[in-house]
Design a protein that fits this description.
By secondary structure, the protein is an alpha/beta fold. The protein is built from 10 helices and 34 strands. The strands form 5 sheets. The chain has a 20-stranded parallel sheet that branches. The protein has a 7-stranded mixed sheet with strand order 5-4-1-6-10-7-11. A 3-stranded parallel sheet has the order 27-30-33, with no helix packed on it. A hairpin with a 5-residue loop joins strand 8 and strand 9. It is elongated and about 105 Å long. The structure holds uridine-diphosphate-N-acetylglucosamine (UD1) and calcium ion. The site of uridine-diphosphate-N-acetylglucosamine has 29 residues, from helix 3 and strand 10.
């Protein structure tokens, strides 16, 4: 029986030993977002009634971040990493309500998780936390296949990678139906020749799936409880299992840093195509690096070699010139950024603002039409509309202990190589003379200069040179005597 009730189980308790990392594998990022978040986001598009994330002991940081995502996410702990089948089994208590009429089972105590409703049954989809390229469409296609009339009780996702590497192999009977999945370590030479591989996701009736999982053994090359073992058990018990084939670029599993780089490259191709489809021009797409959450408006032009870290939103008609680096920044319509500009988190550019070469902006707002065209650092500041920040202007926002804010009023003009020692205020329309070191407030409309006075001694250069020459001769004469 198919059901509209759906729970998603995401497995992420594995150590990721092949990564050789102090950080948990599924927290490594693709396009500025953790692999786990990619999978959880794709799963969330199905609007499942419940998501169960399986983690190992001591993964509290991951659990916390995951819980912050929202209400229907439950955490299950797999006490020992005994394999993907054991990981699913450890989600059992959190899957109450999906286990069929026999329900709870011995281990479901009061803290077992959600109560079993009157309709004890539903579908369970299992996904792996290390398949960051998974899309909502592929998951939706699985759900659709499962809800079709006469659909099989279990569905596995298979794919044909260019290099089948160490994926589990999908073995089919003479009639083409799924017979079993054999893990690479256990596969015979003939089975290793099979190009059809297990993608890792599976979907099925909760009661059937969990009863098969409970029967898994670990008599295999790795002494692990393989989730993939359920398909042979299903066939033996007369359950119908089917195959949903997916695009290899979607189900690639990331087990090493080399694979992480491959996943990143594939994701970039996808993201570039997306922003171009939405109306941005990428002059040389392969040199533009995007984050999963990058938002570009229409008629945005991105010149070559531009990097977008997480949290960047760019309005319509903006031009980002070559070699700029943006992260956590908001750029309003019509602004021009770069070449060689750096927008750090909290940078907010108003409409038509201009930020030129070698300008760094952090936690600072530039009003509409404000300009900082060359060589400046603006941190913890509010710059008014149409203000002009001269070349070499530095906001000294940090005194070695704390950060302080600076305000520059509308239409103010800051002369070149000015140092503004924060906290500082420059009133609207004021002009600060070039080379100033500003240590107190500049009143609106004032002209303020704070620099050493210039002295001119007529003919002084020749006299200076003469003195220098004498000093040099005296010292070299001294050397000869000794
Ligand atoms: C798994 C499949 C393989 C498939 C491949 C697709 C099994 C036995 N093998 O192999 O058929 O081709 O994925 O990418 O299922 N995990 C736990 N607890 C554990 C072990 C793993 O939660 O005890 C989690 C991992 O964090 C990971 C996922 O399960 O997110 C898959 O585990 P991994 O070790 O990467 O499996 P593969 O060897 O890649
Ligand atoms: Ca894997």
């Amino acid at each position: 029986m198919t059901s509209d009730k759906l729970a998603v189980v995401v497995l992420a308790a594995g150590q990721g030993t092949r990564f050789k990392s102090a950080q948990l594998k599924v927290l490594h990022e693709v396009a500025g977002k953790s692999m786990l978040d990619h999978v959880l986001d794709a799963a969330a598009t199905l609007a499942p009634e419940r998501i169960v994330l399986v983690l190992g002991p001591g993964m509290e940081a991951v659990a916390e971040a995951a819980r912050a995502r929202g209400g229907n996410l439950h955490i299950a702990i797999q006490e020992q990493r005994l394999g993907t089948g054991d990981a699913v089994a450890s989600a059992r208590a959190a899957l109450a309500g999906y286990l069929g009429p026999g329900e709870a089972g011995p281990e479901a105590g009061p803290e077992a998780g959600p109560e079993a409703g009157p309709e004890a049954g539903g579908d369970i989809l299992v996904a792996f936390g290390d398949t960051p390229l998974l899309t909502a469409e592929t998951l939706q296609a699985m759900v659709t296949a499962r809800r079709a009339p006469g659909a099989p009780e279990l569905l596995c996702v298979a794919f044909r990678p260019d290099d089948p590497a160490q994926y589990g192999r999908v073995v089919r009977g003479p009639d083409g139906t799924l017979e079993k999945i054999v893990e690479y370590a256990d596969a015979s030479a003939a089975e290793r020749e099979i190009g059809l591989c297990n993608g890792g996701m599976l979907l099925g009736d909760g009661a059937v799936l969990m009863s098969l999982v409970a029967q898994l053994g670990n008599d295999n090359a790795k002494s692990e409880y393989y989730l993939t073992g359920i398909f042979a058990l299903a066939r033996a018990a007369g359950h119908r299992a089917g195959i949903a084939e997916a695009d290899p670029d979607e189900v690639m599993g990331v087990n090493s840093r080399a694979e992480l780089a491959v996943a990143e490259a594939l994701m970039q191709v996808r993201l570039r195509a997306q922003v171009m489809a939405e109306g941005a021009t990428l002059v040389d797409p392969t040199t533009v690096w995007l984050s999963a959450d990058t938002v570009l408006g229409r008629d945005v032009t991105i010149q070559p070699n531009v990097y977008f870290g997480p949290g960047v939103t760019v309005g319509d008609g903006v031009e980002i010139r070559a070699f700029s680096h943006l992260e956590g920044a908001t750029v309003a319509a019509g602004a021009v950024v770069g070449p060689f500009a750096r927008l750090r988190p909290g940078a907010v550019l108003g409409a038509g603002a201009r930020v030129g070469n070698f300008v760094e902006i952090k936690n600072a707002t530039l009003g509409a039409g404000a300009k900082a065209n060359h060589l400046a650092y603006l941190g913890d500041a509010e710059v008014g509309a149409a203000a002009n920040i001269g070349a070499g202007t530095i906001i000294c926002n940090y005194d070695g202990l704390a950060k302080h804010r600076t305000e520059i009023g509308e239409g103010a003009f800051i002369g070149s190589t000015t140092a503004l020692v924060a906290p500082a205020t420059v009133g609207a329309g004021a002009t600060v003379g070039a080379g100033s070191t500003i240590t107190r407030d500049v009143p609106a409309g004032a002209v303020s200069t704070a620099r050493g006075a210039q002295k001119d001694r007529e003919g002084g250069a020749a006299r200076l040179r003469e003195r220098q020459r004498r000093r040099r001769d005296r010292s070299s004469g001294g050397e000869k005597k000794s």
